[in-house]
Amino acid sequence: MTQKDKKQKHANTKFVELAQQRFKEWARIKGLECSVDNFLLFMLKHSLLREKVINRYLVTQLYKEYRAEGTKSEQCIYQVSDVVPYERTIIYDILKNYSNHFNENKLTLK
Known about the structure:
Strand content: under 5%
Largest sheet: none
Number of strands: 0
Order of helices and strands: HHHHH
Distance between the termini: 43 Å
Structural class: mainly alpha
Helix content: over 70%
């Protein structure tokens, strides 16, 4: 493990510790239980999750969900574009990069 990897691992651990402390305090003040849903709400509210990350996740997961239902690829793209604020060409690019990385169903731009 390189020095950079060690530093990143330490930074990740420290981030989790600090976010957990802040979340527990925030949940206590708001009178909320410490649940996964409330933690994600906290992450969004305090800009710890970026919209770009959320939208990319939604594109890949919704596409998989629609395909599992038997929807054709092109129709899936239209359905995903109704949910996320991206044009269809950007959705194609996200899915192409995702499939190249994870070696799943390859997509081609038309």
